[in-house]
Every structure is written in C-alpha cells, then in structure tokens.
Amino acid sequence: MNAVPLRRFAIAALAATAATPSLAQEIVNIGYTGPMSGGAALYGKNVVDGIEMAIKEINAAGLQVGGKAVQLKLVALDDKYSPAEAAVNARRLVQQSKVPAVFVPHSGGIYAAQAFNQQDKFIVMAYSPVPRITETGNKLTVRIPPSFASYIEPFSRYEQRRFGKKVGLLPGDHEYGKAWTQLFSQGWTGLGGEIAANNALSYNKSADFYSGVSRVLAAKPDVLFVGGPSEPTALVAKQARELGFKGGFIVMDQAKLDEMAKITNGLAMLEGSVGLLPLRDDDRQGPKTFVAAFAKAYGAERVPTVDSSYNYALMHALAVAMKLAGTASNAEAIHAKLDEAIKTMPPRFNSGEFRGLDAKGGTLANPRVAVIENGAIKPVSLNELK
C-alpha cells in the first residue's frame, strides 16, 4: 500500500473516532456570581476554590448523564458583593452560558436572583445561612449552610455568663449582617441582655474601623457582636483591642476564627470569642478527608474553611443529581433529585456531613462551633454553651 492510500485510511479512521458517541463530551457550564474583589475577595475565593476543586474531581472521574459524557466548567463572575450586579451576572450566566445552576454566596445577591430564577429556570445554590432564603417558597433554591438561628441562644448565653449582659453591635451593613443583627438582638434581649450601642460597618469597603468601633466602645459593652468576611472582621476585633476593649466577641458564621487569627497574629486578641469551629479542628471523617484533599490541591499553607468544603460538597451533590435526573440542563428535574443526591453521594465527597434537604430546601447538618479560651481553640457543642 503506497503513502496516499495510507494517509486516506488514517484520516478516515480519525474521523470515525471523532464521531464515536461514547467519546463525545457535552460541556455544561456552572455559574457563580460573588465577590472576587474588595474586602470580601478572600471569602469569594474560598467559595470558588471549593466549587472548582469538586468540578476537577468530577471531570477526572468522568460524569455520565442520560447516556452522554458530560464535562463541567465553572463560569465565575465578580459582583463585588452588590445585589444589583449579582442579578445582572445571573441573567448573563443563564442567557449566555446556559447554566442550570448559579452559586451565590451572599444573601443580597440571592434575593436578587430569586426574583427571576423560577421564571428563567435555574437553581440558586444559595451560600448564606439567613433563614429567610428558604422561607420565601422559592422552588428552585437550595440553602447550602444551615440556618444561623440555632447559634443565637447558645452564643448569647456563653458570652453573658463569661463577660456580662451589655453587648455592642458592630455588624456588617450588608443584607446578611442586617438579618443576623435583627434575630440576634431579639435573642440577646430575650435572655435579659442589653443592647449598649449599634453601629453597622461597611466590611467590604473599608480597612479602617476605628471611628465606628470607638463609638460603640464609648457605651462600655461587655461583649462585641461582629461579623462579615474574615479579614475585615479580624480588623474590627484587632482595633477594638487596641482601643482597650477587654470583653468577648460573638463572631457571625461568615468569619472564620483561624483566618481571623492570621490578621491578629494569633489567638490572643480573640480571647473570649465564640464562633464556628475551624475546619482543621473538626475531627469528623468528612471534614478530615476534605482538609487533606484541599491541602493537596492548593497547598498546606492555605486555610481550608467551611465555605470551601460546603460548596465542594454541594457541587458534588449537584453532579449526582444530574445523573439521577438524567439531565444536565433541566433545572427543575435536577433540583428534585438533590435531596436524594446528598443522601447517596459517596461519603468522601460529603465534607459537610449533610443528611439531606428539609422540605423548604435547606440543608440538614450538625455544624460544629468553638470558643477561644486561654489562647486556644476549644471545640464545643451548641448544647454545652446553653
């Protein structure tokens, strides 16, 4: 056989291989709109890293949906923590990238997307613990973290016993901060506490909080209620200590104690804090497996957080739901399978140890919390704090 027939034979073989259905891959985009710049940039990066880590694992293992090979791709857009920009990004992701789901890690952006997601048929993967997110009756929403409502009474009792009844409020001025502050204030006063002062701060826009912190400290609070992304929250605590504050901190669940400790140069300035247990201190199998995988993916120097692990777990669940539904594009069918997906996905991917979804679309889980006592992080249960 001469060279020309050989060349023709090779070209024909390649064409036949390319046309083989088993090797054809459908690209399915997954959306994200959240902060990728500004004071919440690290928070947004943690969320994105968890989603991307899961997508890389899913693609490496191979995803078959309805008899077709599917490859997932994350399309991430920066909304600078702005609800208005989140809405614009979500529409763009649905219309241009044809995503079946959009991860949104802030309540303002979640509410904005919920205004049209059922009409436009995409799932809002809502990374915010605000209870209202799943109380609106939106049938295409999943609230990824557990509601923060369960933290309020135990956190308040612990701080009132240890430091006193007067609290100064220094929350973020974003929707999440407003929702936390409203429920927390009711819980604190319901236990006999007093709101000494209230001054919301723009955690995402500033690095100098001295004037706002000073106004609250003038009321001589025993406890400070703080919270937003980890880095600015740590700066608020640091500046409060530098201004002479000796009491404790109630830290909203968006801020992470181990990330804060990097800004405060250790735990000493955070003495008396209560907040979420850092992931590296969680001895359950799901978190331990995730921490090891995260270090391998991003380096041991990075701080793995529940923001990464929870979004990682729900991205894996989303892929399992696609398989169960037999579609990677029908948002309603995929959403209908998410509860089953969480319950049946391999435990090594369930880094949040989620048990499923409740009737309203919120995850069922047992989050771990911690206090800082004598310069060390001490894991505790919510019941122990009551």
Automatic annotation (TrEMBL):
Would I find Signal among this entry's keywords? yes
Q: Which UniProt keywords apply?
A: Signal
Q: Which domain of life is it from?
A: Bacteria
Signal sequence region: 1-24
All residue ranges annotated as the Leucine-binding protein domain in the record:
28-340
Q: Give the UniProt family note.
A: Belongs to the leucine-binding protein family.
**Record's protein name:** Ethanolamine utilization protein EutJ
What organism is listed for this UniProt entry? Cupriavidus necator (Alcaligenes eutrophus)
